[in-house]
Amino acid sequence: MVQTLEPLILDLVEWVAREPRPYADVMDAWRTSCPRLTVWEDAVDRGYVIREAGNGGPVMVSITAAGRKFLESNGRGQSLGAM
């Protein structure tokens, strides 16, 4: 199953890399009740994305340095300079 999840984790991390996202939006798009499809949980556990409290605003999800490295090592870092 790990091989199946890898492209989905890449998609999630790349989506967050484009711009920080409100936690609620991330959960709407990526949370699942399927115990075999743990994309969000795996991205957080691996340290690719992080939840951060907004300054009086919503909790935001941002990419980490490990997430950027993960994208780059999988050929998806080309457009990170613009992110």
Task: Please name the defining characteristics of this protein.
83 residues; Arc Repressor Mutant, subunit A; 4 helices
Morphology call: globular
Low-pLDDT stretches: none
Residue-averaged pLDDT, rounded? 87
Topology as H/E string?
Answer: HEHHEEH
Mind telling me the CATH class?
Mainly Alpha
Distance between the termini: 30 Å
Number of strands: 3
Named CATH topology: Arc Repressor Mutant, subunit A
Q: How many distinct folded domains?
A: 1
Structure write-up:
This protein has 83 residues and is α+β, with helices and mostly antiparallel strands. The protein has one domain: Arc Repressor Mutant, subunit A (Orthogonal Bundle), CATH 1.10.10.10. 49% of the residues lie in helices and 12% in strands. It is built from four helices and three strands. A three-stranded antiparallel β-sheet has the order 1-3-2. The chain is globular and about 40 Å long.
Topology, element by element:
Blueprint: H1 2-18, E1 21-22, H2 23-30, H3 39-45, E2 49-52, E3 60-63, H4 65-73
Antiparallel strand pairs: 1-3, 2-3
Helix pairs in contact: 1-3, 1-4
Quick structural overview:
By secondary structure, the chain is α+β, with helices and mostly antiparallel strands.
